[in-house]
Amino acid sequence: MAIQENKVEVESKEQFYRGQPVEKLKELDVRESAKFLDSRARRSVLRNFSVIEKFIKRCEIKIERKKKIKTHLRDIVIVPKLVGFTIGIHNGKTFQDISITHEMIGHRLGEFAPTRAKVSHGSAGIGATKSSRAAKK
Fold first, then answer.
1. What architecture is the 16-115 domain classified under in CATH?
2. Mind listing the pLDDT tens digit for each residue in 43-65?
3. Best exposed site among 22, 28, 55, 96 by fewest CB in 10 Å?
4. Sequence-separated (6 or more) residues with CB below 8 Å from residue 14
5. Strand pairing partners for 71?
6. What is the tens place of the pLDDT at every residue in 1-38?
7. pTM exceeding the 0.90 threshold for the entire prediction
8. Which residue, 58, 33, 57, 59, is CA-closest to 46?
């Protein structure tokens, strides 16, 4: 008997943010899409509108030139126009590549590139304890 494999077709689910399709929100102006953000993010977007617009234009230009997007701007609020981009966010030492998804809308870029790493302490070195100091001689 031949075993038949079931082929499951994966339908791409339409992504929504606050009841609106993300594709529709991408077409809107940044100020118009700010209406769907929570109050704190909306306030930040409307006050820093020019900075966010310049950042989006710079990202689009770099994508056209097929260059990597890198930024130190950790306080930029993620708006629907940024969904789908891969951005290198500086964490104080290196640039961490973060892929922007629809779940990140309304959050800031810096939230996804932590500045503090987990510390794993090794064993004590020679001379760190009294017993090892005696062994050193």
1. 2-Layer Sandwich (3.30)
2. 999 999 999 999 999 999 999 99
3. 96
4. 21, 22, 23
5. 89
6. 555 555 445 456 788 888 888 889 889 899 998 999 99
7. no
8. 33
